[in-house]
Amino acid sequence: MKRKASAVWQGGLKDGKGRISTDSGVLSDTQYSFSTRFEEGAGTNPEELIAAAHAGCFSMALSGQLANTGLTAESIETTATITMEKTDAGFTVTASHLDVTARVPNATPEAFDTAANNAKAGCPISRLLKAEITMTAKLQ
Predict the structure, then answer these.
(1) Percent of the chain clearing pLDDT 70 (strictly above)
(2) Using CA atoms, how far apart are residues 83 and 80, in angstroms rounded to an integer?
(3) What is 46-139's CATH superfamily?
(4) pTM for this entry
């Protein structure tokens, strides 16, 4: 399986502008720039897209882990917060924190915690990131 996205950048780092698109068309010439990445400009940025990918990936992985134990979630809400810091090597994504709230009928806290930790470790985006991954998971 392969997925594709593309980016076009025009101009200098601080005054240039870019566009990001995905083959699915969900993103189509979506604007990004220095100000959307390092300031508060309108548009997206690579770190925001990584956060979205991590949240989505984790939620699906948790659903799969719960299914392995015979449980089905009514809802899984995940927010991923990506931390980017300037290191000796340059700007680096150093962490991703997952805030998870799930409604899972008949789940014990122990079964939920096990499923959530397995999903955190096993989600393909978690395995892709060379960053510290932390999580706060709540069963409702």
Answers:
(1) 100
(2) 10
(3) K homology (KH) domain (3.30.300.20)
(4) 0.89
